[in-house]
Write a structure and sequence with these properties.
This protein is mainly alpha-helical. The protein has a single domain (5-106), classed as Helicase, Ruva Protein, domain 3 (Orthogonal Bundle). The protein contains six helices and two strands; from the N terminus they run H-H-H-H-H-E-E-H. It has helices spanning 5-12, 16-29, 34-45, 49-58, 62-68, 95-106; strands spanning 81-82, 85-86. Strands 1-2 form a two-stranded antiparallel ribbon. It is globular, with a radius of gyration of 13 Å.
Length: 107
């Protein structure tokens, strides 16, 4: 599947705080702990628990979330298929969408 500018923009404007519980619920069902979830987010973005909570409370968009992040230099090694999209094939111009899918896959 190909990402479009419209799809990238839609995801970029989603509120991270609205999606965070969906990530967490999925992981909890798979037997993961909240600590593991936050370790992965911190590895990928550099956000510790306090910063993550502040961003949730600020209700930042994914665009802002990833703009403030210090993306791990090895994030490009995250590969695989999420929701029909092969992460490594998502074009660089759709950076926010790619980063969202990397976070999906890393968790």
């Amino acid at each position: 599947m190909k990402v479009t500018a419209e799809k990238n923009e839609k995801v970029a404007n989603m509120i991270f705080a609205d999606i965070y519980p969906l990530y967490w619920n999925r992981l909890e069902k798979n037997g993961r702990t909240k600590e593991e979830f936050h370790q992965v987010i911190e590895w990928l973005t550099g956000f510790n628990e306090d910063k993550l909570q502040a961003l949730i409370e600020e209700k930042v968009t994914f665009k802002t979330f990833f703009k403030k992040a210090k993306i791990h230099p090895n994030a490009h090694l995250i590969k695989g298929v999420i929701c029909g999209y092969r992460i490594e094939e998502i074009e660089d111009e759709f950076e926010v969408y790619k980063q969202c899918r990397q976070m999906d896959k890393a968790n």
